[in-house]
């Protein structure tokens, strides 16, 4: 499947210098293929404005200890929620 890249991505490919391409070990065609793969991988991902998928997770105690208490995202419907993803290690 040949995915047409948005103009913003095509502009990035056209604007990258030969020196930067060489430094990163890329080619313009390889960069374009990478962008196409990323877009193809994201086809089934939630999009901006979509309702977040429900999930369940364990609540932690005040000191970060496990509590065994589970909660779902849907239990917070109507309340402000901030989802922060990352590593805390």
What would you note in describing this structure?
- The chain is α+β, with helices and mostly antiparallel strands and 89 residues long.
- It has a domain at 7-41.
- It is built from three helices and two strands; from the N terminus they run αααββ.
- It has helices at 7-15, 18-24, 28-41, and strands spanning 56-60, 66-72.
- A hairpin with a 5-residue loop joins strand 1 and strand 2 (66-72).
- Spans of at least 5 consecutive residues with low confidence: none
* Rg for CA atoms: 20 Å
Summed up, the helix count is: 3
Strands side by side in the biggest sheet: 1-2
Count of strand segments: 2
Roughly what fraction of the amino acids lie in strands?
Answer: 5-15%
**Structural classification:** alpha+beta
Question: What's the topology here?
Answer:
Layout: H1 7-15, H2 18-24, H3 28-41, E1 56-60, E2 66-72
Helix pairs in contact: 1-3
Describe the structure in brief.
This protein is of the alpha+beta class.
Q: What tags apply to this protein structure?
A:
89 residues; alpha+beta; two-stranded antiparallel ribbon; 13% strand
């Amino acid at each position: 499947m040949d995915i047409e890249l948005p103009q913003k991505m095509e502009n990035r490919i056209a604007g990258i210098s030969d020196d930067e391409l060489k430094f990163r070990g890329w080619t313009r065609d390889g960069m374009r293929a990478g962008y196409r793969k990323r877009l193809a991988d994201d086809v089934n991902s939630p999009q901006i404005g979509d309702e977040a998928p429900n999930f369940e997770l364990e609540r932690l105690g005040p000191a970060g200890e496990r509590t065994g208490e589970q909660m779902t995202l849907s239990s917070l419907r109507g309340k402000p929620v901030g989802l922060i993803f990352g590593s805390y290690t």
